[in-house]
Amino acid sequence: MLRWLAFCIVSGLVIFGSVYGLTKAFGPQEIADNLDTGKDTDLPRAKQTTQAPGGPASTIPAQAQPYVVVKDARFVSTVSREIPSERDGKLIVVGIEVPPGEEGKVPPGTFVPNVRISSLLVETNPADRNKYPQADLVEKNGKLYRRYHSYENSSDLEPGKVEIETQTKNFKELQDGDFVKAGQLVALVNPVLTVDEVGIRIHKLTVAEAERSSAEKTAAEYKTKWETQKGLIRSGATTSEQVRMEKLGYDRYVEEERAKKAAIGQTQRELSGAMTQMAMHEIRPQVSGRVKKVYRHTGEPAKNLEPVLKIEDTDRLRVEGLIEIQNARGVLPGMKVTIEPNRPVNPSLRLPGHLQEINSLAVGMIPGVGTGTGGVSVIASGSKDRSVRFWDASTGAQIAVFNGVGPRSITATSTEAARVLAAVGQEDGGVQIYEMKRNQEGRIVVEKLALTPDCHSKSVTCITFARDGMTLATGSDDLAIAYWKLGEDGKLTQISRKKETHRSQLTYLHFANKDHLVSAGRDNTLHVWEIGKDSLRQMTNDELNGRSGDVTSPGVSPDGKLFIYDQGKELKIMSLSGQHLMGSIVNITGSSPFTGPALFSPEGTTIVTTCAGENRVELWRTPTGGRRATELRQFVWPGGQTTCAAFTPDSRYLVTGTQDHNILVWEMPEGAEIAQKDLTGTITYISNFLDGADRQVQIRADLDVANPGLVPGGKATIVIEPTRIGAPSLSQKPAPLSVGATDTVLNRPGSR
Predict the structure, then answer these.
(1) Whole-model pTM?
(2) How far apart are CA 692 and CA 370, in angstroms?
């Protein structure tokens, strides 16, 4: 026992000595140094740094840090109210007044005529006309009246100067989506009994005034008698008792007049109360907005405090979503965010006619006839049904069809060219030229020009005109790129040919400018070619490889300075000169990589992309000048996936081809919308509680501007820039997250 006790004492001394030695070795200053550098601590760092090889640590720039993205957020109204009835009774109408003369504009089945609306009129001095709203003034029998409201002073209801006005008005029944103004009459519970009560109070007020006037006159008469008796008593012509009797009569009627004045005041308040009850039969919202739901309709019963309709204020919106818990730290109320609405739209035109998948599209512009008139965009489409068709992009009318062609690729001349031509690369290796023009009658026609056979030994998979329309380039399954001169008759003369340019099928060709040609293939590479007088020369021996290759048409900007470089769920916008990264588009709302075409619009301000796995076509602002790419439109087609796309030269429309044999024409947003600033908001709330088992918390942000045409219930993406995310100071160590079945709480500085 003693040996065991001695062993414990010695062990304790050894442990104490070890702890003491470590404390001396790592003093307070060293511990502080460890905190400052973030060593062996779980405290958040104020700055994130990287260590360059052979150099000092440097701060990571904001643009290199990832954005915090909240997907699938929804717009909701900041004000959503159910408007109840304050009285029991039958609803005479649930609707809004139809202005005189507009009865014919009311949809059939919603017109409610001859609804009686009662109000109280108070006679007003004409000199006070400007004190009241013009809509409340009524001229009647040579007198000026104003409509009395229940919130006014009851003393204004002077006897003999009030009366009931009853008007007959027409109404339109309310429907979901109708806009109503604050204070507007939107429903009326039958007020007949209350109107009668108001009439009774008006009569009582008249009677009370008559009784007060009678008491006043009687008092005046007794006063005269009293004064007379006081004069007669000096001469002995009357007695003191008679004087007292006259004095008593005078006092009596003075008090009676005072009582009648009080009765008038009471009746005024009763009349005002009756008016309040009559106003309670009228259902008027306190906020403007759109009708979300109509619970009760004309002719149905209403009960006290039960809602008749629901209104949402669509002028002010907020966006609500769920943010991942690991991204929520440092996100606080008051922070600014960027809000990217999802604007899904349907096609403006569907052009049926092809019998199989659309595999190629191009659009040419025929100038307008006469000064100041616009041109007509003509769509050229190719399909696996071995036909080429031409369409009017604005009307959808088919202009011409050519069968037995076997198209694999199509291109059209730009507006800089002297002629409007379409070149079709065929599956047999030939190229067919078509001319689109107006005939003598002014109609648009398509003329078939020369066919140049055997341009390639295999299918012509990509083709493009130079801007002047005098030369063109072709790419093929034989892996060759050919450069051609176009004759007046449409015949092609070869200028140069490069063999084995890519290791797999060529999918895209585009003249960046008169001196450079860009090519892309399924070998996941992209080449830039220098155009000589009679040759094509690759600008560099280094291939631009590393592409995912899912984007078959990685577009080039109209000025030829930028090109698109695809890498899965990200499209990099690169400079043609020096291959510098200028911006990027990231598919943050989906799980699939970008596929198919990714093209610049003719102005270069937008880019269209597709995601085949999600069957989605999206239009983005071009991410240049330090601006992040933001989604402008989602072009929604529930049918087949998109296979090809082209813009009209005037950027009015986007044209897409689909696997389900359709050509779709989509209206593009206006330039003002494209150029406008990003929609911003302010975080007003971030929850302290996890939402279910997904380890997410709720976040809300109010829009900083009035509703720019968005619809409550629509989806949006909330983007928080890395520079806006606040980091807690070193002295604010976040409390641990307690995870429970129902009481999980996220603790953060400044949370509420």
Answers:
(1) 0.69
(2) 66
